[in-house]
């Protein structure tokens, strides 16, 4: 993958070579696996990550069906079998310690009681045996009429209560002191109870079932019954269609094969919502209950949502599998809406062979456009549910409607028919504007309203992009080898992401018309949707209850978006799962991702281009104004140090004491210093001298670039003979400037250094013929360079002016 990557963290994994894993159990640092091959395999979870023990059983005599580590039994494990017998094993010495005769019925579950040596044994007949394994004695026996015992748990907060689960979703609570049934919690789950556990020391029971629900029950009411404290639920059947709801990219609407419509939050699970299950008559459905609901609608096959006016009326419309009526839903109330949208002539009778196939909502949220299997397209008002007209005299298309879309301004309605036509209609007048014939029968359409581009999926596994302004096909993509299940646009309309039954997910770049990303998944993606913010791609897959989020890596890292070659072999991406992977050996190394290598720009892109030095302006811009800067920074009056008076004031000898006047200093020696005698040669000076013979000026230039403005002035002053330099070194400096102008490299530095050099040594330059000749060459070269540079400036300005003023 290059564009999208799964939100997975690397962990240590083991892959067990088994046909199926029936049960897993952990205690201490061991993981115990019970397989359908009637063997137990134990692994060390910490340390060496290796197999600890393996025990094989004969299926005919002892087929393991349940396991438990009894409390305080060190290195012991209790096993139950389908034959009804129990065995106690020492896993350290790999020895059978004791065999319990059992009750002649298959053991379904084992659970430790709060009392030591006591366990609860659940049987396939619905019996619960509370047994003392130390003395092999049965303490009490219970029976429930809902089938085999699926789970057992004990309260540990001081109440002698045992809970038992059943395959029909009911929970029975037994009073251990009175040895009788205390109460029942019917329909705790819609399917079998898979597991239950009381929180230690708390009146809380956690249950999960095959209905993909996890519930926490609190026992604080009279009669000992429990109520739901909190729950987490998902679809009990795989999703059929998912779409982002709203513009913040935080909610995903999902329709499942279980007939429910749910909202999943990408921020936190506590924001998840269930909009319920579609029903023909909600009042009758509530009276009959969920399991006996004969009014339930078929699963949703397509839906559309809009946040505009969703607080005023229903903002979601959905069509159901093989059903003519479309339902409205209210996101704010999290329930099915009040309107059922269907043609007026079918209000009393409901034909079996006519059903809704496509739906869309206008951006204002006022109207819904619905396409039928007969080719009919109708418009309904979302607020009142009243029919507002239809497109075409009788039908809009001769074949079934495969897709409908409304533009962002409510001006055009685009419809696609199975006969291979795309038609454009005036939204208000219902008149046909334009019709175009396609190369194949379309299977679905998707409109990106902001950019006005329409994605069309065909039955021949190709995808086309149509511009609704010009009404022409602008892009055609091929590469899928199966039915196109769904497609989605990126928020900016640059990418089109498609999924197919060939288990591939591909990303097409519309401006370049190329495939930029492709990867395979284990099961085909039936639906795709991309976040309005562009950070996540959500996918739903065949026979999978979950919705998977893929992060857009191009938002936070450098990703190569170059076109993929025609012979590109996509890699298989394993979806995250809680189930053990079988017969697979995967190394811990991650697949190297095709990220873009950061481009490092060379110092000079081309010799014909003028290249700057990238030094800050403070290093060269004020070289000509250093004397002004020094005058401004110079203090007005230097600080005066007070003269220290002597302790004994000197006097002249005589009768009248007189002070000795201070001696006046006389200049007996000249203060003019010959710098040429005292000056030492600097590194810059030495490099310039060497360049006279080698003609290599990189070293003196690099040294000069590393100096500050004041040091640069000192170095240039020292080049003159009066500063300790020579005419030859000054000539070498001018040649260095000529080299910089010739290569068009460090162009602004050459101008600044040359200007300062001319300011400091103008008198000497005018009196030396060698220097004058070199200066004339520099002047001609500099003039040619500026003429070339000015031509480039004029060309760029001309193009920019044309682009700004031309009508494109």
UniProtKB/TrEMBL annotation:
One of its GO terms (cellular component) is Pwp2p-containing subcomplex of 90S preribosome. WD repeats lie at residues 186-217, 394-435, 477-513. Residues 603-804 form the WDR36/Utp21 C-terminal domain. Coiled coil: none annotated. Residues 27-220 form the WDR36/Utp21 N-terminal domain. GO terms for biological process: rRNA processing. It holds the Pfam family Utp21. The chain crosses the membrane at residues 27-49. Keywords: Membrane, Repeat, Transmembrane, Transmembrane helix, WD repeat. InterPro entries: Quinoprotein_ADH-like_sf (IPR011047), WD40/YVTN_repeat-like_dom_sf (IPR015943), WD40_repeat_CS (IPR019775), WD40_rpt (IPR001680), WDR36-Utp21_N (IPR059157), WDR36/Utp21_C (IPR007319). PANTHER family: WD REPEAT-CONTAINING PROTEIN 36. This is WD repeat domain 36.
């Amino acid at each position: 993958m290059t564009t999208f990557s799964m939100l997975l963290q690397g962990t240590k994994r083991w892959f067990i070579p088994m046909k199926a894993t029936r049960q897993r159990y952990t205690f201490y640092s061991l993981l115990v696996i019970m397989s359908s091959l009637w063997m137990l395999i134990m692994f060390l979870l910490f340390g060496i990550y290796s197999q600890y023990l393996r025990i094989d059983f004969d299926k005919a005599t002892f087929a393991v069906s349940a396991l438990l580590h009894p409390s305080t039994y060190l290195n012991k494990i209790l096993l139950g079998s389908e034959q009804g017998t129990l065995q106690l094993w020492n896993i350290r010495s790999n020895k059978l310690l004791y065999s319990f005769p059992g009750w002649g019925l298959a053991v379904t579950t084992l659970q430790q009681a709060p009392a030591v040596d006591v366990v609860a044994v659940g049987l396939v007949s619905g019996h619960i045996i509370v047994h003392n394994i130390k003395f092999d004695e049965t303490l009490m026996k219970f029976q429930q009429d809902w089938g085999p015992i699926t789970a057992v748990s004990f309260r540990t907060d001081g109440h002698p209560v045992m809970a038992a689960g059943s395959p029909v979703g009911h929970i029975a609570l037994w009073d251990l002191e009175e040895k009788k049934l205390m109460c029942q919690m019917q329909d705790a789950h819609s399917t079998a109870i898979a597991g239950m556990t009381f929180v230690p020391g708390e009146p809380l029971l956690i249950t999960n079932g095959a209905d993909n629900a996890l519930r926490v029950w609190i026992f604080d009411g009279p009669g000992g019954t429990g109520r739901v404290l909190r729950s987490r639920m998902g679809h009990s059947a795989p999703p059929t269609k998912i779409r982002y709801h709203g513009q913040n990219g935080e909610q995903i609407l999902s329709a499942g094969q279980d007939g429910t419509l749910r909202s999943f939050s990408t921020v936190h699970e506590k924001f998840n919502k269930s909009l319920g299950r579609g029903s023909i008559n909600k009042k009758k459905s509530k009276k009959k209950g969920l399991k006996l609901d004969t009014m339930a609608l078929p699963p949703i096959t397509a839906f559309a949502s809009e946040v505009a006016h969703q607080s005023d009326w229903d903002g979601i419309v959905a069509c159901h599998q093989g059903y003519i009526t479309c339902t409205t839903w209210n996101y704010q109330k999290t329930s099915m809406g009040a309107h059922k949208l269907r043609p007026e002539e079918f209000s009393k009778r409901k034909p079996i062979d006519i059903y809704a196939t496509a739906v869309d909502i206008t951006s204002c949220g006022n109207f819904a456009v619905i396409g039928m299997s007969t080719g009919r397209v109708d418009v309904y008002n979302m607020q009142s549910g009243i029919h507002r007209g239809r497109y075409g005299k009788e039908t809009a298309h001769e074949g079934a409607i495969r897709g409908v879309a409304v533009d962002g301004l409510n001006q055009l309605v685009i419809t696609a028919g199975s006969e291979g036509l795309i038609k454009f209609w005036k939204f208000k007048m219902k008149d046909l504007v334009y019709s175009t014939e396609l190369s194949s029968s379309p299977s679905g359409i998707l409109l990106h309203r902001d950019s006005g581009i329409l994605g069309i999926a065909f039955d021949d596994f190709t995808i086309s992009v149509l511009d609704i302004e010009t009404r022409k096909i602008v892009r055609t993509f091929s590469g899928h080898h199966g039915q196109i299940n769904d497609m989605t646009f990126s928020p900016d309309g640059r990418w089109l992401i498609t999924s197919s039954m060939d288990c591939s997910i591909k990303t097409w770049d519309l401006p370049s018309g190329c495939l930029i990303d492709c990867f395979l998944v284990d099961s085909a993606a039936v639906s795709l949707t991309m976040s309005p913010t562009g950070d996540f791609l959500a996918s739903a897959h065949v026979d999978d209850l979950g919705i998977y989020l893929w992060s857009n890596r191009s938002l936070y890292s450098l990703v190569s978006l170059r076109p993929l070659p025609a012979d590109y072999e996509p890699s298989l991406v394993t979806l995250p799962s809680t189930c053990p992977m079988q017969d697979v050996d995967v190394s811990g190394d991650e697949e190297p991702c095709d990220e873009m290598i950061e481009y490092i720009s060379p110092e000079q892109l081309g010799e014909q281009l003028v290249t700057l030095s990238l030094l800050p302006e403070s290093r060269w811009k004020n070289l000509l104004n250093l004397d002004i800067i020094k005058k401004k920074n110079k203090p007005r009056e230097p600080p005066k140090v007070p003269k220290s008076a002597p302790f004994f004031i000197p006097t002249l000898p005589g009768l009248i004491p007189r002070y000795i006047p201070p001696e006046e200093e006389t200049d007996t020696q000249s203060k003019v210093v010959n710098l040429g005698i005292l000056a030492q040669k600097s590194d810059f000076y030495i490099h310039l001298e060497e360049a006279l013979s080698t003609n290599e000026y990189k070293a003196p230039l690099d040294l000069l670039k590393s100096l500050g403005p004041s040091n640069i002035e000192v170095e240039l002053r020292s080049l003159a003979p009066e500063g300790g330099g020579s005419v030859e070194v000054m000539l070498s400096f001018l040649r260095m400037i000529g080299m910089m102008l010739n290569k068009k490299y460090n162009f602004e530095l050459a101008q600044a250094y040359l200007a300062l050099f001319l300011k400091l040594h103008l008198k000497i330059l005018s009196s030396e013929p060698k220097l004058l000749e070199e200066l004339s060459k520099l002047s001609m070269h500099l003039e040619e360079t500026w003429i070339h540079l000015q031509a480039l400036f004029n060309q760029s300005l001309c193009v920019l002016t044309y682009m700004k003023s031309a009508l494109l």
